[in-house]
Amino acid sequence: MSVKYGLDGQVAVITGAANGFGLAVAQRLADEGARLVLVDRDAEGLHAAAEKLGGLPVVADVSEESEVDGYVAAAVGAHGRIDLFFNNAGIEGRMAPMTELSVADFDRVWKINGRGVFMGLRAVLKVMKPQRSGVIVNTASMAAIKGAATFSPYIASKHAVLGLTKSAALEAAEYDIRVNCVAPGHFDTRMGRDLTHQIDPNDPDGVFRRVGQSVPYGKRYGTAAEVANLVLWLLSSESEYVSGALYLIDGALNAG
Questions:
Q1: How far apart are CA 179 and CA 113, in angstroms?
Q2: Do 75 and 123 form a contact (C-beta atoms < 8 A)?
Q3: 204 and 123 assigned to the same domain
Protein backbone atom coordinates (compact mmCIF):
# COMPACT_ATOMS: atom_id res chain seq x y z
CA MET A 1 0.00 0.00 0.00
CA SER A 2 1.30 3.47 -0.87
CA VAL A 3 2.08 5.87 1.95
CA LYS A 4 -0.25 8.87 1.99
CA TYR A 5 1.58 12.18 2.19
CA GLY A 6 -1.29 14.66 2.23
CA LEU A 7 -0.78 15.85 -1.33
CA ASP A 8 -4.45 15.67 -2.30
CA GLY A 9 -5.43 18.58 -4.54
CA GLN A 10 -1.91 19.94 -4.93
CA VAL A 11 -0.86 20.93 -8.44
CA ALA A 12 2.11 18.87 -9.62
CA VAL A 13 4.11 19.44 -12.80
CA ILE A 14 6.22 16.49 -13.98
CA THR A 15 8.61 16.67 -16.93
CA GLY A 16 9.71 13.52 -18.70
CA ALA A 17 6.34 12.12 -17.62
CA ALA A 18 5.83 9.62 -20.44
CA ASN A 19 8.17 6.95 -19.06
CA GLY A 20 10.75 6.01 -16.46
CA PHE A 21 11.04 8.05 -13.28
CA GLY A 22 8.59 10.69 -14.49
CA LEU A 23 5.83 8.19 -15.13
CA ALA A 24 6.46 6.41 -11.83
CA VAL A 25 6.29 9.68 -9.88
CA ALA A 26 3.17 10.73 -11.77
CA GLN A 27 1.53 7.43 -10.81
CA ARG A 28 2.33 7.97 -7.13
CA LEU A 29 1.10 11.56 -7.24
CA ALA A 30 -2.12 10.43 -8.92
CA ASP A 31 -2.59 7.91 -6.12
CA GLU A 32 -2.15 10.79 -3.67
CA GLY A 33 -4.91 12.79 -5.37
CA ALA A 34 -2.63 15.49 -6.80
CA ARG A 35 -3.70 17.44 -9.89
CA LEU A 36 -1.22 16.45 -12.59
CA VAL A 37 0.35 18.43 -15.41
CA LEU A 38 2.29 15.91 -17.47
CA VAL A 39 5.06 17.19 -19.75
CA ASP A 40 7.03 15.30 -22.39
CA ARG A 41 8.08 15.67 -26.02
CA ASP A 42 6.90 12.10 -26.71
CA ALA A 43 3.31 12.93 -27.63
CA GLU A 44 2.14 9.34 -27.97
CA GLY A 45 3.60 8.19 -24.66
CA LEU A 46 2.43 11.36 -22.93
CA HIS A 47 -1.18 10.99 -24.01
CA ALA A 48 -1.14 7.33 -22.99
CA ALA A 49 0.07 8.36 -19.53
CA ALA A 50 -2.59 11.07 -19.26
CA GLU A 51 -5.31 8.65 -20.32
CA LYS A 52 -4.21 6.22 -17.62
CA LEU A 53 -3.55 8.68 -14.79
CA GLY A 54 -5.67 11.70 -15.63
CA GLY A 55 -4.26 15.19 -15.66
CA LEU A 56 -3.31 17.72 -18.29
CA PRO A 57 -0.85 16.53 -20.99
CA VAL A 58 1.45 19.20 -22.41
CA VAL A 59 3.71 18.22 -25.29
CA ALA A 60 6.89 20.24 -24.87
CA ASP A 61 10.63 20.10 -25.47
CA VAL A 62 12.36 21.22 -22.26
CA SER A 63 15.36 22.47 -24.26
CA GLU A 64 13.25 25.22 -25.85
CA GLU A 65 12.62 28.34 -23.77
CA SER A 66 9.22 29.09 -25.29
CA GLU A 67 8.04 25.53 -24.65
CA VAL A 68 9.22 25.57 -21.03
CA ASP A 69 7.38 28.84 -20.46
CA GLY A 70 4.44 27.24 -22.27
CA TYR A 71 4.10 24.23 -19.98
CA VAL A 72 4.29 26.47 -16.94
CA ALA A 73 1.66 28.79 -18.40
CA ALA A 74 -0.55 25.78 -19.17
CA ALA A 75 -0.31 24.61 -15.56
CA VAL A 76 -1.14 28.04 -14.17
CA GLY A 77 -3.90 28.53 -16.72
CA ALA A 78 -5.54 25.27 -15.74
CA HIS A 79 -5.02 25.39 -11.98
CA GLY A 80 -3.91 28.89 -10.98
CA ARG A 81 -0.76 27.73 -9.19
CA ILE A 82 2.04 25.16 -9.02
CA ASP A 83 2.72 23.42 -5.72
CA LEU A 84 5.05 20.58 -6.73
CA PHE A 85 7.59 20.33 -9.54
CA PHE A 86 9.48 17.19 -10.56
CA ASN A 87 12.10 18.65 -12.92
CA ASN A 88 13.06 15.34 -14.38
CA ALA A 89 13.41 15.24 -18.18
CA GLY A 90 16.82 14.14 -19.39
CA ILE A 91 18.77 12.12 -21.94
CA GLU A 92 21.94 10.03 -21.78
CA GLY A 93 23.58 11.09 -25.05
CA ARG A 94 26.34 9.24 -26.87
CA MET A 95 29.08 7.39 -25.03
CA ALA A 96 32.55 7.99 -26.51
CA PRO A 97 35.93 9.46 -25.51
CA MET A 98 36.01 13.27 -25.54
CA THR A 99 38.28 13.24 -28.57
CA GLU A 100 35.62 11.36 -30.54
CA LEU A 101 32.66 13.52 -29.50
CA SER A 102 31.48 16.50 -31.50
CA VAL A 103 30.40 19.80 -30.01
CA ALA A 104 26.93 18.91 -31.25
CA ASP A 105 27.04 15.72 -29.14
CA PHE A 106 27.80 17.82 -26.06
CA ASP A 107 25.24 20.51 -26.88
CA ARG A 108 22.46 17.96 -27.40
CA VAL A 109 22.87 16.62 -23.87
CA TRP A 110 23.49 20.02 -22.31
CA LYS A 111 20.41 21.64 -23.87
CA ILE A 112 18.10 19.15 -22.16
CA ASN A 113 19.91 18.09 -18.98
CA GLY A 114 21.51 21.40 -18.05
CA ARG A 115 19.78 24.31 -19.75
CA GLY A 116 16.40 22.57 -19.61
CA VAL A 117 16.65 22.11 -15.84
CA PHE A 118 17.69 25.75 -15.42
CA MET A 119 14.81 27.03 -17.54
CA GLY A 120 12.34 24.82 -15.66
CA LEU A 121 13.58 26.13 -12.33
CA ARG A 122 13.45 29.73 -13.52
CA ALA A 123 9.92 29.49 -14.90
CA VAL A 124 8.44 27.57 -11.98
CA LEU A 125 10.11 29.74 -9.33
CA LYS A 126 8.49 32.78 -10.96
CA VAL A 127 5.16 31.16 -10.04
CA MET A 128 6.13 29.79 -6.64
CA LYS A 129 7.80 32.91 -5.24
CA PRO A 130 4.61 35.04 -5.21
CA GLN A 131 2.79 32.07 -3.64
CA ARG A 132 5.53 31.87 -0.99
CA SER A 133 5.29 28.10 -1.16
CA GLY A 134 6.31 25.13 -3.27
CA VAL A 135 8.57 22.12 -3.47
CA ILE A 136 10.92 21.17 -6.31
CA VAL A 137 12.83 17.96 -6.93
CA ASN A 138 15.38 17.83 -9.76
CA THR A 139 16.67 14.59 -11.23
CA ALA A 140 20.45 14.44 -11.08
CA SER A 141 22.36 11.13 -11.08
CA MET A 142 25.26 9.48 -9.36
CA ALA A 143 27.03 11.15 -12.30
CA ALA A 144 26.69 14.38 -10.29
CA ILE A 145 29.36 13.23 -7.81
CA LYS A 146 31.88 11.36 -9.97
CA GLY A 147 33.52 11.22 -13.36
CA ALA A 148 33.26 8.50 -15.95
CA ALA A 149 35.37 7.83 -19.02
CA THR A 150 33.45 8.10 -22.30
CA PHE A 151 30.46 9.84 -20.67
CA SER A 152 31.63 13.44 -20.30
CA PRO A 153 28.59 15.38 -21.62
CA TYR A 154 26.22 13.51 -19.30
CA ILE A 155 28.60 13.82 -16.34
CA ALA A 156 28.96 17.56 -16.90
CA SER A 157 25.20 18.04 -17.19
CA LYS A 158 24.44 16.19 -13.97
CA HIS A 159 27.12 18.07 -12.05
CA ALA A 160 25.27 21.16 -13.27
CA VAL A 161 21.96 19.86 -11.92
CA LEU A 162 23.51 19.57 -8.45
CA GLY A 163 24.87 23.12 -8.65
CA LEU A 164 21.56 24.48 -9.86
CA THR A 165 19.76 22.67 -7.04
CA LYS A 166 21.98 24.23 -4.37
CA SER A 167 21.74 27.69 -5.89
CA ALA A 168 17.96 27.50 -6.30
CA ALA A 169 17.54 26.26 -2.73
CA LEU A 170 19.40 29.29 -1.40
CA GLU A 171 17.48 31.73 -3.61
CA ALA A 172 14.11 30.19 -2.73
CA ALA A 173 14.51 29.64 1.00
CA GLU A 174 13.17 33.03 2.05
CA TYR A 175 9.99 32.25 0.09
CA ASP A 176 9.43 28.96 1.97
CA ILE A 177 10.26 26.97 -1.15
CA ARG A 178 12.39 23.84 -0.91
CA VAL A 179 14.61 22.50 -3.71
CA ASN A 180 16.39 19.12 -3.67
CA CYS A 181 17.66 16.56 -6.14
CA VAL A 182 17.74 12.80 -6.39
CA ALA A 183 20.79 10.96 -7.71
CA PRO A 184 19.90 7.52 -9.05
CA GLY A 185 22.51 4.86 -9.72
CA HIS A 186 21.75 1.93 -12.02
CA PHE A 187 18.03 1.66 -12.81
CA ASP A 188 16.07 -0.57 -15.13
CA THR A 189 14.58 2.13 -17.35
CA ARG A 190 14.67 2.98 -21.04
CA MET A 191 17.83 5.00 -20.43
CA GLY A 192 19.47 2.22 -18.45
CA ARG A 193 18.77 -0.29 -21.20
CA ASP A 194 20.03 2.11 -23.87
CA LEU A 195 23.36 2.39 -22.07
CA THR A 196 23.84 -1.37 -22.06
CA HIS A 197 23.38 -1.34 -25.85
CA GLN A 198 25.96 1.44 -26.18
CA ILE A 199 28.47 -0.42 -24.02
CA ASP A 200 28.13 -3.67 -25.97
CA PRO A 201 25.58 -3.78 -28.80
CA ASN A 202 26.38 -7.46 -29.32
CA ASP A 203 25.56 -8.49 -25.75
CA PRO A 204 23.47 -5.84 -23.93
CA ASP A 205 21.86 -8.50 -21.72
CA GLY A 206 25.30 -9.60 -20.56
CA VAL A 207 26.15 -5.99 -19.68
CA PHE A 208 22.86 -5.69 -17.82
CA ARG A 209 23.65 -8.79 -15.74
CA ARG A 210 27.20 -7.69 -14.93
CA VAL A 211 26.18 -4.17 -13.97
CA GLY A 212 23.39 -5.47 -11.76
CA GLN A 213 25.82 -7.79 -10.01
CA SER A 214 28.09 -4.79 -9.26
CA VAL A 215 25.48 -3.19 -6.98
CA PRO A 216 26.24 -4.08 -3.34
CA TYR A 217 22.63 -4.03 -2.13
CA GLY A 218 20.54 -6.67 -3.83
CA LYS A 219 22.93 -7.31 -6.73
CA ARG A 220 20.35 -5.79 -9.07
CA TYR A 221 19.21 -2.70 -10.89
CA GLY A 222 16.76 -0.48 -9.06
CA THR A 223 13.22 0.19 -10.22
CA ALA A 224 11.56 3.46 -11.17
CA ALA A 225 9.04 2.88 -8.39
CA GLU A 226 11.88 2.97 -5.85
CA VAL A 227 12.95 6.39 -7.10
CA ALA A 228 9.32 7.51 -6.94
CA ASN A 229 9.19 6.54 -3.26
CA LEU A 230 12.09 8.89 -2.52
CA VAL A 231 10.76 11.72 -4.69
CA LEU A 232 7.33 11.59 -3.01
CA TRP A 233 8.95 11.89 0.41
CA LEU A 234 10.97 14.91 -0.77
CA LEU A 235 7.87 16.53 -2.25
CA SER A 236 5.92 16.04 0.97
CA SER A 237 5.92 17.89 4.28
CA GLU A 238 7.59 14.82 5.81
CA SER A 239 10.89 16.30 4.53
CA GLU A 240 10.05 19.82 5.75
CA TYR A 241 13.59 20.78 6.85
CA VAL A 242 15.37 19.28 3.82
CA SER A 243 16.53 21.69 1.12
CA GLY A 244 19.60 22.06 -1.07
CA ALA A 245 20.39 18.37 -0.71
CA LEU A 246 21.37 15.55 -3.04
CA TYR A 247 19.95 12.12 -2.23
CA LEU A 248 21.83 9.16 -3.66
CA ILE A 249 19.65 6.15 -4.40
CA ASP A 250 22.12 3.55 -5.64
CA GLY A 251 22.10 0.42 -3.46
CA ALA A 252 25.37 1.50 -1.75
CA LEU A 253 27.22 1.58 -5.07
CA ASN A 254 29.02 4.81 -4.17
CA ALA A 255 29.45 4.12 -0.47
CA GLY A 256 33.01 2.81 -0.83
A1: 17
A2: no
A3: no
